[in-house]
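Service request form, structural biology core

Requester: graduate student, group of Dr. S.
Request type: structure prediction, single chain
Budget code: on file
Notes: please return the result as structure tokens.

Sequence provided:
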Amino acid sequence: MRVAVVGAGAVGCYYGGLLLRAGHDVTFIGRQPHVDAINAHGLLLDTKTFNGHLPAKAATDATALASPDLVLVCVKSADTEQAGRSLAGRLLPETSVLSLQNGVDNAPRLAAVTGHAVIPVVVYVGSEMAGPGHVRHHGGGDLAIGPSAASEALAQTLQAAGINTTIADDIEVTLWSKLIINCAFNALSAVADISYGPMLEVEGTRDVVASAVQEAVTVARACGVSIADDIIEQILKIPAAMPNQMSSTAQDLARGKPSEIDFLNGYVVRKGAELGIPTPTNHALQVMVKLVERGKEISGRRNSYKPG
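Core staff response, request fulfilled:
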């Protein structure tokens, strides 16, 4: 298949790398340092079972793209519309577009911009860009994709590339469940710069997590999404299973990148306001991350100021 990965970061490069290794024609669209490294040396795919450079093509925008058979959209939620506009005129009627993004509303936002059907995907992977053009896999890798006429064939293609894929008929439940996990841990990990394991050792953290989860569950159910009654018990097991994992929000802040907090806790806050549901814990977590972002921005300006 001819595959385009729009957003060549940790998620896009991992799944694109597996498809590349399986023999598909993959083009990565990303930032200049990654593009230059991939074009010069190939993509360095670094997993527990493989470590090597794979010849690949990369570009900083989609203008050079031939019409792809499959598009993996892996950009940050704030860049969804821009990514959709970049694909205008490059999608065939039979092109499959998958949204491998955090949050619950990226697929409809992409569809609105492109005028093309978009299949939502929930991603369960730990990966990072360890350097330009170098993706390192830490664990996981399963995908849950929404139902569509193309989903069965897509799942088979992904499985053949070593990507464990299920078709989730209840994709809205799956999307919201992942969002609620992000609301529980992402902001706390980011603000404290702490991994999941030691986080719950701090007195009061469980109460904050439980409060954020309960607010998000209430909002989800008011949106008509059936969330399991035991979700808080399942979420509280995650730190023991992934003790060294830093949240994606923490990784964004560490690299000086804008976070997706407005599409995680912030999304729950916005939907809660629309529905008349109080979400004070999620609002506090959202504001805490925004304060850290603002503080880093001010600090960066101070450090760059040189008296004349």
